Amino acid sequence: MLCVIFGLSLLDRTNVSAAYIAGLAKDLRLDIGARYNIALLIFFIGYALFELPSNLIIRRLGARYWLSFLIISWGACVLGMGFVHSWTTLTILRALLGVFEAGLFPGAIYIIGSWYRQFETAKRVSVFYMASLLTSGFGPIFAYVLSLIRVGDGMYRSGWRWIFIIEGIATIVAGFVAPLFLIEFPEKVTFLTPRQKHIAVTRVSLEQRQGDEVEHPTVMQSLSMLRDWKIGVYSIQYFVAASSVYSLAFFQPIILRQGMHFSYALSQVLSSPPHLFAIVLSLSFAWLSDKIKMRWPILIAQSVTAMVGLLIILYAQAPGVRYFGLFLATFGTQANVPASLAYGQNQTARVQKRGVVAAAMISVGAAGGITGSTIFQSKDAPLYLPGMWATIGMQVLYSTVTLCMSMYLRKMNRLADEGKRPALEGVEGFRYAP
């Protein structure tokens, strides 16, 4: 169910690009100035501000009902976009969409981190993210079909409206169904005995060997956890991963349409295969990362693949070769989103802190969304040279930061093994997973 609702969330936040080339830009005059970029980036302001508060609420209220409320709320925002007549109303609804979607992704990562141990998380987070990516991979085709709907002679003859209306209704329905299928945190589930709940909680948290009850950190405790400088490094990693993903998500259909000169229908259809390719390779690399118990070689390999793909898109001449580059770029950027989140969770010993780490990383990732929605500007068409090189440069930063951080963590593990360091993360026996 987490996969289903996250897939819907990705559709709901990126379907504006499909609507843009289906007539939204013309009807609302989004082609004037920076209107389209503003409508994109306004989403990420609320998205960044409400992630940490949501993760402080979710464990207290329970995932089933809190997430269901968020799903229904953002579904209503998407539905409302199908009836707008001005770009300002669209922008306001995009801002509210960010507020309500903010709690889903960090909440889901928090849930997964509460059930699985250090070298069990990468493939689970990747399955969660890639299964939802399967939904968004077919999103452009689905959007194209919806854009063909025509009803009456008024505004409902505009196909882009039906993209928002149908997808908004689907999300609202999923929100009402979600309480029946969403998983709770280990201590709240009803299908485990008290002994099984104890095992589920203590197996993932070394500091709770004595059977301590799960504590809910206060706001001040959460802010204190944020003082850990390593969270800043994990956030830089996720910032790069998120900005690169959003860049391609928002502008891939436009690049296919304007940059590679494919037809509207073909541009929508050709948006899906790169996502399917990314799913298969990302799951394989996540499994390999858990198998070899190493994160950094996989993270850097995926980042380098993204760089190669972006360079091919930028400088190859034949459309087929540039399209192949899109496969590599999509895989390299998408794969490092769940991989980076798993990396941050793996370096955090206390379960209570994992929710804070996930929220902090994804909040900074919202800034990556702002970057991704602004570096590709209409005036740079058809090559979008500044945006492409900005994305490549960030991937270089990602590889450099990941290598330096991982070498530092390996050094800390070695010093702890030699007895030259106190307990890592304040937990006896804990070791980082670089």
UniProtKB/TrEMBL annotation:
Main location (coarse class): membrane
GO-annotated cellular components: membrane
Major facilitator superfamily (MFS) profile domain span: 1-414
Membrane topology: Multi-pass membrane protein
Keywords in alphabetical order: Membrane, Transmembrane, Transmembrane helix, Transport
Compartments it resides in: Membrane
InterPro entries on file: MFS, MFS_dom, MFS_trans_sf
GO molecular function, one term: transmembrane transporter activity
Spans traversing the lipid bilayer: 34-53, 65-86, 92-115, 127-149, 161-183, 231-252, 272-289, 296-317, 323-344, 356-376, 388-409
Alphabetical list of PANTHER family matching this protein: MAJOR FACILITATOR SUPERFAMILY (MFS) PROFILE DOMAIN-CONTAINING PROTEIN-RELATED, PERMEASE-RELATED
Protein name: Retrograde regulation protein 2
Species the sequence originates in: Pleomassaria siparia CBS 279.74
Organism classification: Eukaryota, Fungi, Dikarya, Ascomycota, Pezizomycotina
